[in-house]
Design brief:
The complex is a heterodimer of chains A (287) and B (339). By secondary structure, chain A is mainly α. Chain A is built from 11 helices and 4 strands, in the order αββαααβαααβαααα. The chains are: A mainly alpha (287), B mainly alpha (339).
Chain lengths: 287, 339
Amino acid sequence: MATARNPAALTRPLITPEGVDLRVKLADAGTRAAAFLLDVVIIVAAAVVVTLVVIFGLGGLGVKEAEPLFIVWMIFIFLLRNVYFIAFEAGRRAATPGKRIVGVRVASRSGAGLTIDQVIARNLMREIEVFLPLSIIAARGGAGVADTLSTIFGLVWALLFSLFLLFNRDRLRIGDLLAGTWVVETPKFKLVEDLSQRQDPIAKRFHFSPAQLDAYGIAELHKLEEVLRRDDYFAMKAVAETIGGKIGAKIEPVDSKAFLTAYYGELRAHLERKLLLGNRKADKYAR
Amino acid sequence: MTLPAGTDAVRQSLASFRQEREADWKAFEALLARVEKRAPRTLSEDELLSLPLLYRSALSSLSVARATSLDSALIAYLEALCLRGYFYLYGARRGLRQRVGDFFLRDWPAAIRDLWRETWVSVGLTVIGAIAAYWLVASDSRWYDAIIAPSLAGGRNPDSSVETLRNVLYDNGGDHFLSGFAAYLFTHNTQVAILAFALGFAFAVPSVLLILMNGCMLGALFQVYAAKGLGFELGGWLSIHGTTELFAIALAGAAGMRIGTRIAFPGELTRMAAAAQAGRVAATAMVGVMIMLLFAGLLEGIGRQTITSDATRYAIGGGMLALWIAYFYLFRMVRHGNG
């Protein structure tokens, strides 16, 4: 899959009216499947709870009095399946609880606001994509007439539609296709400390020449930032050794973190100065 | 520190960029978290006015950060914050109550009116199916079993006696768990309608077949009763809910056909854009169809077996049909302002 190899393949431009490109990331197939399964679990759990309540409610009443309850139950179960997705996706966060948990939401492909008719269209199509073949299998199984052929047919149908999103660039379900929507990631990041502001008494001992700072570019700087934020002793030791070997510096293993902090600060300042002068040194191979 | 003065100055200015604006970002994040959970009504006037200002400030920070900073965590934070702000500020612009009001006053009738051509085709197919099945069953009664599955027929077939057939029409039900049956019919009919709509994307062929088949069943049933001189009575029995239900299923078929034909013949748009446009009109119509089917289910389960006078049945059926037609095609909400 393109997802694993190249994350940029799922990035799409989203230019706000203010003219800034927000570069949305489309949710990959695994995330979509996880969100859907979570929703199914929630729906089934709700249905089971309500059914139990109704059964105990019926227990106390005669059949006559229970009749209205039975109707309410029938309609509730129907609505649960058909309205759950629509109601949540039409809400302010445009995501069902499952989608919220995995951090994705529905958005309009045009970039305009998501309208309720789009939400309805994309969710009604789910009926033929998933629920129809499965309910046919369930019904036939319940009646004891499920033969292998029809079960296979139903499963192939369901699979064909649920895998549809793997066969197009934008990860669209049939429902997304008809509604003009797609599903994008809405990650929540905390504002973390600026590593170049870190005060470390040992780090102050390290000094680097311009030639030593020219050894790496922006791609390596970002990797270094990742390693420092992860704060794993062995990873930092390995990285410090590699960098030390490349720029010709001798580092004690205990000083790895301080060395990397110092090098990060200097390298970033160096590369940002270049950036201001119009030279974006993408990686170590760039001049 | 023994860094050269120049280096220190650059680091200082980029750091102060963050220090200067950090408070704004935090304020924006806190406001967003609040409005995403609760209605914007809970914000004070000042907070409401500051929302777009903070959003623009965050966007401008993002642009500056992308151009000058290499702190990838900071850029990721700003991108996520701006995206959230963008979706909120340019996203849902109307409250739920207003949306629901708009749906009933404007969107639903407009969507149905928009589908007028497909609706005629759909009604035409039902009539053609009915006539064809009537003629087939009249010429050879074995066709009846081919058209209506024995499990659905409920003992009504060409060999039934007049008495049996009459009983089905006027049996006031005893305690047949009628309203539960109504709810079952509602969910069943809605599934059929959703199918007619959703299968439309296969170039409308399944929708056409479904509508035609629906017409066939109607025609076959009618022939059986008409042959025994009960045609008028069957009309009453069917029309009490049937006008609403058949109209709803015809509309669902029309919605499916719209999608299928727009995918096949997208006109000047791209195929994707045409499909998306058709899908949205059709989806609005479909929610309306489900509401109609809810009415039909109630009429069928409660009204059909308890009201046994032919005249009342025709009156209710005709009244409902007139009501729907008036609502969809005659009633047009005049909107003032720019809505």
